[in-house]
Fold this protein.
Amino acid sequence: MRSIILLTFLLQWQLHTVTASENSTAVLTKFLANVNQNLAGLYNREVFANWQLEIKGPNDLYAILQSELASEEIMKYIQSIAAKCAKFKRLKIGNEQLQRELAQVPETGYEALPATDLKLMYIVTTNMGHIYKNTKLCAFHDRRQCNLTLIPAVQNILHNSDNVSEIEYYWLEWRRKTGMAAKEDFATFVELYRKTAQLNGFATPSEFWFKDLEEDGTQAASMLAQFMQRLQPLLQQFHAHVRGQLRRLYGEELIPRYKPVPQNLAEIFIGNAYRRADPEWYIEFPYPEVGMPNITEGLLRRGLNNAQRVFWNVADYFRSLGMPQIEDTFWSENARPKADLNEESMRCWHKAWKFYGIQRVNFSYCPSVDEERFFNMFEALTDLYYYRAYEEQPTLFAEEPFPNFSDALGKMFSLAASSPRYLEKLKALDRGLISKELRINRLYWQGLRTIFLLPIFYVLDRYRVDVLDGRLNISDNCAYWQLTSDFTGAEPPVIRSNEDFDAPAKLLVEVDDQYTSQIMSTLLQYQLYKHFCEISGQYKPDDPNYPLDLCDLSDQRQVGPLVWQAMSFGSSQSYKDILHIMTNETAINMEGLLAYYQPLYDWLVEQNRLDGVEIGWEPTTKCSTEHDAE
């Protein structure tokens, strides 16, 4: 009898548990449906206001007000549901997909701080941004003229100067006026960031830092270290050649053998690669007599002389990959030119604008037609396709799986479009121009803009994470320079000490901008390109007729469906799962980048041997821990 009673009790308890679980799942499902609907409305208000600012100009006071109000409403709403989200997470109810959707609800972030701390956080981050934007330097040739901003005034001076004293003066003045001025604010930011991480439930600040990558701090650090190790052979050969070039320009006294290069001179040399108009004026190409073809002239000759024609030409490229065709009315109904071009010509780019919960994408475009805007159109249309591919996803999944994931896709298509074989097919490049010399020049120019940036990004994130987690003292300026020297091969032009504070000179724009996702995005760009070129037969390892840097993906219809499927998931799957769908790989790797630059690497090895330049560099001795360092 007692056994029957116990059995009956157990059955009733199990039934109650199942029923309670089902009820809890239903409650969570309803909660998430409301969150998706409410966020869609709030996000759309903000997107529309920012779209208006883009096409009407930054002085549209009504649009500015609407954008600010929408941002405030979004944060208030997120705060209002934070406690309920935390409770659902603790209960761990629902299936795996509901749990992932719950995890995508935005966190309060800094808003978790007490009111006084939150106000202080906004003050210090704003101060550091203002230091970068508003610091004025006195002119080298006239110290009474003290109205020079770093960008564009000082930047233009430096890129047109061969006076070493002038270049060193501005390097030192920038750090003198920004470093110590930002130190107290930076220290306050670090303390408040640590508190923010704790209040948001993270064990360490680095866990909070890497939260959007679905990697914990240890995993992220290990991944980045492996990337830097794989990059080292290519970086060392490239660094050796650049150091040899700098030595020819400035002499062995300034550029001694086996030493890191002075950062101020290296920045000028590498920075010249970003001056795309007639780059041979600013860069000593491996084959100067060949130079680089003028793609802008080729585009205009081809008849691509306005943004609308470029848009439809690029749309046709995507259609040739098997992507859906864009409707004929899109340009007239959804596209508008960007405003205030004269004031913001440096930021005149094409951009797709997504809306949530409705099937709508707007487009703003730069009326200028040149090489950079042409390739930028591939990135903008990639976003347009991305937004349309996941428009059926709920608001919480209408995102990329990690920051800059969509940027990797866009830049991959831009990279494919820059292939000389595609440009030849487009008739933007004359037939017969493709040669080994042209390829090496092109890879050299692209490499300056890519290879040297990766270790810089690594140092900036490594420095901040080590400071945030307490492994590095903010006042240890020499530790910052040791990282810089070890991984980038650069050092200060003069002796520095712990009395200086040089890191903020590189970090002031957005002190909490994360660069790890940019490293991952850059590598993913080449990884995807390599895979798509392999499956389409346009790249064949060890076959000189099918090198990766000449791969043309146009008309390869098997590529589009793969990309569209991956895009359609939004953030409903992890980036590893989405990467597996596209490539059968689950981890981002460097093999694509190394394969792409293999011809350049081979050339650098041989040329460095012929030139007799040394490979590698010794640790820097240009930072002293002694307070009386001169």
In short: Strands lie at 261-262, 335-337, 351-354, 361-365, 490-491, 496-497, 623-624. The mean pLDDT is 91.
